[in-house]
Request: fold
Amino acid sequence: MSGTTATTAREVAEEVLRPKAQEIDRKRRYPKEGLAALGKKGLAGILIPAAQGGLGGTLSDLAQACEALGWGCASTAMCFLMHACGTAVIGAKATAEQADAWLKPAAKGKALATLAFSERGSGAHFYAPEISAATKNGSFVLSGRKSFVTSGGHAALYPVLVNASGEPGLDVIVVTPDLPGVGFDGTWDGIGMAGNSSIAMTLDDVKVPRANIVGAEGDGQSLVFDVVAPTFLIGLAGVNVGIAHAALEEAAEHAKARRYPTGQTLADVQAIQMGLADMSIAVEAARRLLREAARAADAGEATALPLVMQAKIAATEAAASVTERAMRIGGGQAYSRSLPIERHWRDARAGAVMAPTNDVLREWLGKILTGLPLF
Ligand SMILES: Cc1cc2nc3c(=O)[nH]c(=O)nc-3n(C[C@H](O)[C@H](O)[C@H](O)COP(=O)(O)OP(=O)(O)OC[C@H]3O[C@@H](n4cnc5c(N)ncnc54)[C@H](O)[C@@H]3O)c2cc1C
Reply:
């Protein structure tokens, strides 16, 4: 299972994602063809159970697929990851009707999912949304604004995090863009992940059928921490290992190709050799930690939670440092944007500030290490 999923993801990354990555970045356009190819190959169903037409994959499968896709095109990989998170959260508690209406088309790549969790106010603390949902005539009525919604305006399924019960507690309600009052605002202008359309979603008195809630009222807390958090952290770590690996390869290729009039190449310079060595250690260490974290999470081991947090921090910080070093090896050519290295550098800046952010994860890890409660 793992081998097949990872191999398919690598093939799509090589054949479809990588050849288009520069153009998607430059034009800041949504990576439709990459997502369509992933749907065609069945990867859109990576975390959807086989009974609903998916691959029934594991977090280890997700880690390897995201690594391959992050290597090919980080924008496409982010949209794919948010789709995987969206389908995982729906699938965790889907009723038979929800599975038929949402998961079956999602598994075929016909309905793209994402997460609409973040808000301007709650920021890094997305698990404390300000949007609440009133109940009126048998519907939830949602008003407010979600920020940074990846695939905003392109996705078909938006699990929105709210407090519907009015009690302390969280709820995940699936909003579809056909509902009156749903809108999207702005265009994505982030320094990296240029194609991923992380824009604001506006909800203006949107009446959502009560049947669109995932699980029962108040289930949102466990959906966020038991389903979304491990899926997102492992997938994002994979995307970042892929970005770091791509930057290492580009830097090594540039070092071999860049020749001085003396006949010496950059690869002949010892400082460059040592830089590449350090980069390879960072990539491999992050990759190994991620695979162990995903394995432990799949096995339900008690140490999985801190490992998953460590893996996200290690992978995103490896991507940041490896791409920084790659920029130096690429020199003026990297800076002048004639090499793809600067795209990897920009793409690698997102990981640390994506929630749970590395700062917040460090705080949680410290609490785990000292036996304190997380909240
Ligand atoms: C490319 C991209 C795609 C995204 N896609 C999605 C998506 O699809 N769906 C979605 O819901 N969200 C998405 N997000 C949002 C993301 O996950 C974060 O929630 C968001 O970036 C937080 O931004 P903020 O500036 O408001 O954070 P702030 O809360 O303002 O935090 C700013 C900084 O302060 C630090 N900080 C805050 N509180 C603490 C603390 N207690 N201790 C230590 N440090 C702290 C943070 O670590 C951070 O570095 C995306 C973001 C990006 C960049």
